[in-house]
Design brief:
With 200 residues, this protein is mostly helical. The protein contains nine helices and no strands. Its main location: membrane.
Amino acid sequence: MVDAPRHSLLDDAQGLGFGVFCAALGLQVLTFAGLVTGQTAGIAVIVSYLTGWSFGPVFFVINLPFYWLGWRRMGATFTVKSLLSVTLLSILTELLPMGFEIERLNPALGAVIFGVLTGLGLLALFRHGGSLGGVGIVALYAQDRFGIQAGYLQLAFDAVLFAVAFLIFPVPIVIWSLLGAVVLNLVIAINHRRDRYVAT
């Protein structure tokens, strides 16, 4: 079997940029619909809803403790790419509302759009050696070390987070939010397979 060629610096730059942009668009749809999500982004969304604080800075701060694991277990390159991706996402989520508004959105459709866009974004980040930090770092480490599918591990974390969300938000909001999280994690679980996709 011939080794796949490695991504160039330009490949990584466009791949990470594409991934962050898709994720930022997905979060714009999510928050317009008033939905929540899982992982560290979900924690940041919930905190921003409850406090009125802006999502971007909250998301950036929540991710800070996870970089230590990323540095220790995944290496400096992965950690730097993840830090850059998280920083760019934090900035983009602040800038997008200035030029992009949604007038009407069915919550179910919003959940699916969020799941697909953010799932695509995370796939691009993973394929180019980055992540959006937090649980993504833990999930990728577990997949590489123990063979646990990253999407399924994130789905388990999401289950705990949504159990808490049921205590805070109206049930319909959490139900539609669950749909978005399931779509997102299935996109990752089905498509992020090192036995099928070998480009690095």
